Amino acid sequence: MRFGAISAIFTSPLERAQETAQPLSLRLKQAAVIEPRLIECDFGEWTGATLTKLYRKPAWRDLMAQAGNFRFPAGESIREVLERMTDLIGSIRSEHAGETVVGFTHADPIKILATDALGMHVDQMHRISVATASMTTFVISQSGLSLDSLNTGSMIGGYPA
């Protein structure tokens, strides 16, 4: 699918996403707007823990088996991430209809949104892999959200990301 000129750049409030957005923002001479709904999952008490440590927790098995019913201890639920991401998609649909918009976010929100776009149950989010600094393309139309590409190279609108 070919896309038009980029009309808006949105980024997660987290520094790593803002740093990733910066080259495109500078190249287009267009400020990236911080969009809170693009933030990574709130991992609560798990924030900063190593995966090796988390793999040993019984709750890890719950996350892998039934993500849709999972809430990170003292953090966000997977369904809440899905709700804020679909809310963002609705805002983009109404405010940027027919435009090309770029958003810089994180692996889990992308995986959660991809399950929705593909009509999969959110429990299956772990079947989707999102590589660091990869590009995933969604198409937002009046009929809904579709996944156009997943884990492609780093070109956005003909520009290196």
What does the model show?
The protein has 161 residues and is an alpha/beta fold. The chain has a single domain, classed as Rossmann fold. 35% of the residues lie in helices and 21% in strands. It is built from 5 helices and 7 strands. The chain has helices spanning 15-28, 51-55, 58-65, 78-95, 107-117; strands at 6-11, 32-34, 100-104, 135-141, 144-152, 155-156, 159-160. The strands form 3 sheets. It has a 3-stranded parallel β-sheet with strand order 2-1-3, with helices on one face. The chain has a two-stranded antiparallel ribbon with strand order 4-5. Strand 4 (135-141) and strand 5 form a beta hairpin. Helix 4 crosses helix 5 (107-117). The mean pLDDT is 91.
Question: Helix and strand layout, with pairings?
Answer:
Blueprint: E1 6-11, H1 15-28, E2 32-34, H2 51-55, H3 58-65, H4 78-95, E3 100-104, H5 107-117, E4 135-141, E5 144-152, E6 155-156, E7 159-160
Parallel strand pairs: 1-2, 1-3
Antiparallel strand pairs: 4-5, 6-7
List keywords for this structure.
single chain; Rossmann fold; three-stranded parallel beta sheet; two-stranded antiparallel ribbon; globular
Give the structure's gist in a few sentences.
This protein is of the alpha/beta class and 161 residues long. The chain contains five helices and seven strands, in the order βαβαααβαββββ. The chain has helices at residues 15-28, 51-55, 58-65, 78-95, 107-117, and strands spanning 6-11, 32-34, 100-104, 135-141, 144-152, 155-156, 159-160.
- The top-level CATH class is Alpha Beta
Distance between the termini: 18 Å
Number of strands: 7
Q: Please state the second-level CATH architecture.
A: 3-Layer(aba) Sandwich
- Biggest sheet, spatial arrangement of strands: 2-1-3
Helical segment count: 5
Main sheet summary: 3 strands, parallel
At CATH level 3, the topology is Rossmann fold
Content-based structural category: alpha/beta
Low-confidence stretches: none
Taking Cα atoms only, what radius of gyration do you get, to the nearest Å?
A: 16 Å
CATH superfamily: Phosphoglycerate mutase-like
**Whole-number tally of structural domains:** 1
Order of helices and strands: EHEHHHEHEEEE
Strand content: 15-25%
